[in-house]
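USER: For my understanding, would you kindly supply a protein sequence with its structure tokens?

ASSISTANT:
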Amino acid sequence: MGYLIRDRQIVPITTNAFPLFQQAYDLLVEHGSYPLPEQKNIEYGMIRGLLQAYDDPYTIFVEPPQHELQSQQLRGKFGGIGARIERDSQNQYRLFPFEDSPAKRSGIQDGDILLSIDEVEIRADMPQDDVLALLRGDKGTSVRLVIFREHDQREYRFQITREEIALPSVTWNLLPEDKLVGHIQVNLMSSTTPDEIKKAIEDLTLHGAVSFILDLRNNGGGLVDTGIKIAELFLPAGSPVLTQTYRDKQPQTIQAEKDGPFTQIPLVVLINNSTASAAEITAGALKAQQRATLIGTPTFGKYTIQLVFDLPDGSSLHITAAEWEIPGLIPPIRDHGVLPDIWVENETTENLNGRYIQAALQALRSKNSP
């Protein structure tokens, strides 16, 4: 017997609720020539089938290794040994330690081949995310590695204590074409990104920058709150940033609570079709408030919010729970994404980045001219 939640009939999940599945399962047990998958794999398959029938591309199931890596990216840091891994032409995983990292200090050398991590054999068919998940863990914990070093044809064993490793989401530099312009590349909307952008602007200003390019090209998004906070860095108090609507609730508009520290600096924002989600919030809010000139091509057009629910085995379910819009943005994002003020044609990739930069410089010079 079902019951009503928010005017929708919900069928309790019991074996009797899925008689066809139960019959198919029993038939496989009775007649199948091959062993059944592990219970975990059966459950994962059921979840994927449920989501396929649900038919929302942004409501997704994420297995434990991928979920942990995504969480670390959004936190902007993780516990690890401080090394890059690469798969070579023989599908062997090789380590390349960062300078002054736990891996480097322990004696790991460039190109060492990973054989095992905590007694787990590193196979050629193992996904890279699974290898990364084994290497990472809580700060202060240790991990045991066995590696093979080609130049002396020997195996070595290491026990390395994990340390906090930063995952910067922002890089910056003065433009070679104009040393008065600071270029800030934002790759991801993580919890540390607003502070990284603030640090970037302060550092660039110290080195002579007076105008700035906020580069959101190929930024697939991240945390919604981060997209809001970045916009607030450049907006005066009271500026509307985002209106979000959850099911069965009234729309809620979020406004900048105080003047941002950079409300007066000349600013352009670079966007393209791979600018998505939380990055579109930043770009859209700055355009709607006429705070920045947007340059490029229309953004991706993702205007939904996903809630992430951790499951007991370390996997997660990402469920679309709300939609958002930018107050004053014309046309609305759901129609065509966020549209640029100045278009950069991208029929050819020849000198595409140069054309973006030249358009940005021209826009900034017009802002700075009396």
Observations:
- Residues 1-11 have pLDDT under 50 and may be disordered.
- The longest strand covers residues 316-325.
- The two ends are 73 Å apart (CA to CA).
- The chain has two domains: 77-166, 170-368.
